[in-house]
Amino acid sequence: CSDWNTTSHVQWFYFSVSNTRKRTPYRLNIVNLVKPTSLYGKGLRPLLYSNHQAGTVGIGWHRTGTNITYVSNGNVLRNRKDDGDDFKIEFLRTLSFDVEFPCNNDKCYIAHCFPYTYTDLQGVLQELEARDLRSIHLRAQKNATAAAAAADTTHISPFETLHATPRRGRGSGGGGDGCRSSREVGGSNSGS
Predict the structure, then answer these.
(1) What is the pTM of this model?
(2) How is 66-115 classified by DSSP, letter by letter?
(3) For a FRET experiment, which of 49, 136, 165, 178 has its CA 20 to 30 Å from that of 9?
(4) Cα dihedral across residues 171, 174, 176, 180: positive or negative
(5) What is the DSSP string of 119-136?
């Protein structure tokens, strides 16, 4: 999929396949990708995660796939140019690859890159909070998106920048920024 609200070609995929059959080759086609070239044409392989393998032998995400191709599929995307008058034509592509799933009746996930989940992020933030970091300031706040969903924002910066004279203009910071919670991790940098 192409990411929304980007000015360049950004794409990713993440999906699951259930009820798999071991040692049965599957040909997967991911269609209508926008990027004109891809690292899949230079040796990159998709990632696979098997619930069964992760639970029984501890194997997590790993590269998989053979016979990988990334080619134009004949479909066309018409986007309005910035001036709004003409259309920009882009030829769409298909990523295809063969995969054999490691276990019967498994649920497997296939992804473009290693997933980094919200749970992963929360673990890292808890680890930072637990450390004695005298030089780090950690500030977390809850925001609401346009769709009224919760969205966390986390700022991690050198502690000494908090006491610097604020600059005028973009990014000057300096209080009144609407943060609902703020905490210093580990205290100040003064000598002890």
Answers:
(1) 0.63
(2) EEEEEEEEEEEEEEE-TTSSSEEEEEEEEEEEEEEBSSTT-EEEEESS--
(3) 49
(4) positive
(5) HHHHHHHHHHHHS--TTE
